[in-house]
Amino acid sequence: MLLRSLSVFGVAVVLAGCSAARDPASDYRVVREVPPLVIPAGVEIRPIKPLYPIPPGPVPKEWPKKFKAPPPKPLVLADAAPAEKAADPAATERPVLTQDGNGYPLISVVGDVNVIWDGLDQALRKAAIKVDDRDQRIGLYYLRLSDEVGKDTPYQLRLTRGQTAYTMTLQKDDDTLAPRTTTQSLFEAIVANWPEAGQP
């Protein structure tokens, strides 16, 4: 009797384990659809509405038998910036004295950076501007200019590349612009003494 009870208990445990291991999430795939409930005539009940209505599925698309990828669009090369176009030294333009958005003077020039750098050096020498040092790698000239009382003051002349041209600005240090009158006077001298195209 004890052996029979243990056997029944073992079978029950195995069946319980099997049912616990089964995943019921996919039961809806094999369920049978039953007909709607028929209510006898003369019986009053509340309207029956489906608790979980199944929305209509999307209409399947009709794909062609063999998919053909659309051809790629033709490659269109964008125009290079003027500063990049002017790799030819003869294409370098003369500098133009202009102003930034705050009315501060600056020089704008389009062309090859090496030609601009050499032209700036020639213009400073011709205008007798004292150059303490220069570093083409960072586009910087270290100058000494006379102030209102004739005292030599160090300045930084920066050559910076913009979107369409190179610009020159004059600063007292990394964070301070030079006086407007000093900058205007220096830039007028640079533009006036800039070498002509093809001049050594």
Features:
6-stranded antiparallel β-sheet, alpha+beta, 26% helix, 200 residues, 6 strands, single chain, elongated, TATA-Binding Protein
Overview of this structure, please?
Helix content is 26%, strand content 19%. A 6-stranded antiparallel sheet has the order 1-2-6-5-4-3, covered by helices on one side. The protein is α+β, with helices and mostly antiparallel strands. It has helices at 2-21, 82-85, 113-126, 180-192, and strands at 96-99, 105-109, 130-135, 140-146, 152-161, 166-171. It has a domain at 94-192: 2-Layer Sandwich (TATA-Binding Protein). The protein has 4 helices and 6 strands; from the N terminus they run H-H-E-E-H-E-E-E-E-H.
Secondary structure blueprint with pairings:
Elements: H1 2-21, H2 82-85, E1 96-99, E2 105-109, H3 113-126, E3 130-135, E4 140-146, E5 152-161, E6 166-171, H4 180-192
Antiparallel strand pairs: 1-2, 2-6, 3-4, 4-5, 5-6
